[in-house]
Amino acid sequence: MKKTIRKKVQTRRKPSSGKGSQKSSDRKSTAWDQAARWYDALVGDHGSDYQKDIIMPGATRLMNLKKGHRVLDLACGQGVFSRYLLAKGMQVEGLDTSEELLKLARARSKPAIRFHLADARDTGTFEESHFDAVACLLALQNMEEIEPTFKNVARWLKPEGRFVMVVTHPCFRIPRQTHWGWDEEKKIEYRRVDRYASDLSIPIITPPLAGSKGHTTTYHRSLQTYVTALAGAGLCVESLEEWTSKKESRPGKRAKAENRARKEIPLFLSLCARPVPVNF
Questions:
Q1: 91-96 and 114-117 strand pairing
Q2: pLDDT tier for residue 28 given thresholds of 50, 70 and 90
């Protein structure tokens, strides 16, 4: 869900665990540690087509950033969005629980980006009102608990800061619970939804290769659950956007219907939220 031949690898810096972060020797290996090299090869230096064409530009626009703003790339993985933000003149810090992903992030990134090995639920990683913006791209769906994470985001943001979250669309893109279908009579492609309202924990084989024994977990939540959790953390939703795929089918009998379906059924959901004013 997150994710070219590598360029010459830079010298790695020592891990910056951040204030209050657990030492790497105390941490257990995560599922994403096992999938780190596969994910890194998939994403590369600049990201997948979805990241480059849709997700990173969209999230940056919603954060309304100016050069020099301090931004947290929450659940940064191997740092692709951190590098994107740095190239646009931001002061960037990244946080992730996977030590292996952070090793790859440091190897691919300039030393100006500070990467922290910590859990998003850890309260002592950053000081209050530390960031102008926080972004979490395609990672909340891999977090078992979002409420403490949102509370930390509200704590770490400056009063006028913005939090942008992007997830695969929870209404239409639920692993094993949503599918494409073909209506022969109407000659249309449709999206079938078997379950939506229930919170679900869904194991995903990662990497998705024959014989792979590892897996990560996708946590499906309804849109209501996300908005309620944001409000409970003191974050009010400022905007909601639904982003569709830009892919096009090759010419064929169903190409027109497939292309129309892609434009009608969103692939990603983005929410932009801000701290509720104290005197609200």
A1: parallel
A2: low
Q: What is the pLDDT of residues 65-99, one digit of tens each?
A: 999 999 999 999 999 999 999 999 999 999 999 99
- The pTM (predicted TM-score) of the whole model is 0.88
CB of 138 closer than 8 Å to CB of 43:
no
E-strand stretches of the chain: 70-74, 91-96, 114-117, 131-137, 157-168, 178-183, 188-193, 200-205, 215-220, 235-243, 268-275
Neighbour count for residue 130 (Cβ, 10 Å) = 16
**Rounded average pLDDT over 208-218:** 85
Which residues, 6+ apart, have CB-to-CB distance to 75 below 8 Å? 95, 96, 97, 120, 136, 137, 139, 140, 142, 143
